[in-house]
């Protein structure tokens, strides 16, 4: 029986303490189960890993993405082709959710959709996850976990639709996975790097999937929005208004709000809150700073307001989050 073991140390960049806690990696989760389809998740990981390699992160800096294979019990998980992937167990370490969570496809999705432990975990993290992407039959698992509010979660626009043809070629499936990953890479790191990733992983597809910037060297609307988003991240520890961000994008406030929601799938205020929450989580995990000071450094004001945000978004207090993250790290 073929056996392939992928050591997570080679494809996963675990979050380690650094002086610059604000530069937190975006967390990408890939949920697997016995009988999953291997090519889709493999393509996703290759895309984000290549983005990390091409991002130009200096020694001691975190790459843009932290990538993790997950399963209900952890350990070795057999794909539909009997190749095996090593996974981490879903537990409290992932209670804060993900920037993107991919759910694998394959015949094993039918049984996974009946696993109450898996579904309970998925329900608990989906409201704290920015986007969920289903690969093929992975849509069955997400559907079994129950609906989510459309304003709370960006659902995949490419994968897992009800009209997927089971006989669709593996090549098309791989293209869909690659295109979906590139959508996020382009959003986070810009069109040029996304094109380089596409050229490296799927030569010949970059021109189709990641169009060049507007002619004449001017920035496209999407590039202006991403530039404003990066500015918001860099300045999230001080008061940031929509008017300020709109000025960075050289747009009116009304147009900026509309364009930002279309490009980033969240409002500017929600995006800024997600950035601040991620920074606060890192401070809680990696430092001994009091909650009030963390609130000020993450731009959330004071400890009371940060506690309200945590209870609303994560159903626990900052102190409880710190305790759980420490226990998970020591386990």
From TrEMBL:
InterPro entries: AraC_XylS_family_regulators, Class_I_gatase-like, DJ-1/PfpI, Homeodomain-like_sf, HTH_AraC. Keywords: DNA-binding, Transcription, Transcription regulation. The keyword Ligase does not apply. This is Helix-turn-helix domain-containing protein. Residues 226-324 form the HTH araC/xylS-type domain. It holds the Pfam family HTH_18. GO terms for molecular function: DNA-binding transcription factor activity; sequence-specific DNA binding. SMART domains: HTH_ARAC. Signal peptide: none annotated. It comes from the Bacteria.
């Amino acid at each position: 029986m073929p056996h392939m073991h992928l050591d997570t140390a080679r494809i996963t960049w675990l979050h380690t303490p650094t002086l610059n806690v604000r530069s937190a990696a975006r967390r990408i989760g890939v949920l697997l189960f016995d009988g999953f389809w291997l090519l889709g998740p493999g393509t996703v990981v290759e895309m984000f890993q290549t983005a990390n390699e091409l991002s130009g992160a200096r020694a001691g800096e975190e790459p843009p993405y932290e990538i993790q294979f997950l399963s209900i019990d952890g350990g070795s998980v057999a794909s539909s082709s009997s190749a095996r992937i090593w996974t981490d167990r879903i537990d409290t370490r992932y209670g804060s959710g993900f920037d993107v969570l991919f759910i694998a496809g394959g015949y094993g999705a039918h049984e996974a959709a009946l696993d109450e432990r898996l579904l309970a975990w998925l329900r608990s993290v989906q409201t704290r996850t920015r986007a969920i992407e289903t690969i093929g039959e992975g849509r069955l698992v997400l559907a079994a976990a129950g609906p989510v509010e459309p304003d709370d979660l960006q659902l995949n626009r490419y994968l897992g639709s009800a009209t997927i043809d089971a006989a669709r070629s593996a090549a098309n499936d791989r293209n869909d996975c690659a295109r979906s990953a590139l959508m996020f890479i382009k959003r986070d790191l810009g069109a040029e790097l996304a094109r380089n990733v596409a050229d490296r992983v799927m030569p010949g597809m970059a021109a189709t999937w990641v169009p060049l910037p507007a002619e004449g060297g001017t920035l496209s609307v999407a590039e202006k929005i991403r530039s404003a988003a990066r500015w918001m991240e860099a300045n999230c520890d001080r008061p940031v208004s929509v008017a300020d961000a709109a000025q960075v994008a050289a747009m009116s406030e009304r147009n900026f709000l509309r364009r930002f929601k279309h490009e980033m799938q969240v409002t500017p205020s929600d995006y800024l809150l997600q950035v601040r929450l991620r920074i606060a989580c890192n401070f809680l995990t990696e430092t001994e700073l009091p909650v009030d000071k963390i609130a000020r450094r993450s731009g959330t004001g004071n400890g009371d307001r940060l506690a309200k945000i945590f209870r609303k978004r994560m159903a626990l207090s900052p102190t409880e989050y710190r305790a759980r993250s420490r226990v998970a790290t020591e386990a």
